[in-house]
Amino acid sequence: MQLTSPRLRAALLAAASLTLVAAVLPPPTPLGIGDRLFPELGNPGYDVLSYDLSFTYKDNRTPLDAVTVIDARALEPLERINLDFTHGKVASAEVNGEPARFESVGEDLVLTPARPVTAHVPLHITVRHTSVPRGRADGGWVPTEDGLAMANQADAAHRVFPCNDHPADKAFFTFRVTAPEALTVVTNGVPVAAALRAGSSKTWTYRTLHPMATELAQVSVGRSAVVHGTGPHGLPLRDVVPAGDRKRLDPWLRKTAGHIAWMEERVGRYPFENYGVLIARATTGFELETQTLSLFEHSLFSGDGYPEWYVESVMVHELAHQWFGDSVAPRTWSDLWLNEGHATWYEALYADGLGKYSLERRMREAYQRSDQWRAAGGPPAAPKAAAPGEKIGLFRPVVYDGAALILYALRQEIGTQAFDRLERRWVAEHKDGVAGTQDFVRLASQVAGRDLTAFMEPWLYGKTTPAMPGHPEWSGKSV
Hints:
By secondary structure, the chain is an alpha+beta fold. It has helices at residues 6-24, 246-253, 256-267, 308-320, 336-353, 359-377, 401-414, 416-429, 437-448, 453-461, and strands at 46-56, 64-74, 81-84, 90-95, 98-99, 101-105, 108-112, 122-131, 140-143, 148-151, 172-180, 184-187, 190-191, 196-198, 201-207, 219-222, 224-230, 236-242, 276-280, 293-297, 328-330, 433-435. The chain folds into 2 domains: 30-221, tricorn interacting facor f3 domain (Immunoglobulin-like, Sandwich); 328-474, Neutral Protease, domain 2 (Orthogonal Bundle). Residues 153-214 form the Aminopeptidase N-like N-terminal domain. One of its GO terms (molecular function) is alanyl aminopeptidase activity. It holds the Pfam family Peptidase_M1_N.
């Protein structure tokens, strides 16, 4: 029988091509970009430019229907395309408008396009799938009392949507989230338009104005109040809190503008389109610097056991990450010390300024414990991998106070003025980019006017902690 429909002919030819390609290619395997701590995270061969994520939320137990659209650029010829994705079920996949075979291997979703992709061409990928709200044990979606939030650090974004799940590949994001009309949806970025009502649901659309790592994506669904304000130089502030707690939490929310002004005095202009805190009724065991909308546990602000100065310093910690870790993303996960060390440094400086916990005392206490931390977790710039099944096990004291101790030692070595210039140049020169440990050592050397490699390497990679410049009395360690 003669086929007269061009669409039908194209569909049959595409299906035949997929069968032939699959027959000659070796079995798919998980790939990675070679990160020492997460060897199968990230994928070679392409650079993601943008994600367009659509989710339909029913409740915080039911898998969300989702569509992930990825626009990328092929860096090399690709017969297969590996994406990081697990937990969800895939219904279909397309590459450049044509159906593609899809198979799950390990924690990768492997696509076989109808025809090989040539290098240096646009790559348009569409995956229709579910997204499973698994809770904090696996990372990704975090169920709250009235909805969901997201906590993807370090390797959990691919438990929510197919992606190139490594901070070295930043991209722009668009979020389209449909939820029951009684709920409110807020994500990273800014609203594209007013929420659209259809029947008993609303669809909310947001878009980031700066590139973002997958681990920093945030989607909040719940019975929330969105509190708007204004920060330094007209910066839009946007906080998301449980609707019933808005008045009680308001004194905390009013502190953010001052925190931003304090940080800007030290490192320069806030790097993004807006900022705010997301206070969720959830138990996570951590706070998280999701870009423009930092996630906090409600219990931190409950007044039970946490002094005000401590809560404020934690708020400053997550705010500092917007510069250190978000705007300047780590090149590899071994560079995590640059994120957490800097955030801890400014947290400690803030507490020192309040007169509650002096920086020198905190650094001396860290120095006394530093060898123990290095033995347990590795040196700050070469941390040991997390144990299997412990998704946040990488976040040990050695990359927090142990890494802030490196910054203290560097300031002691080059002087306060040079150190302050270094901090400003670091976030300005790498804004919206990716940088690593050697980049930091190189810039520090430029600012200091001498090669600091021999000074920095023992602090970064040594099994034991070097002597602290300017503090010979710290040479004897105590437990």
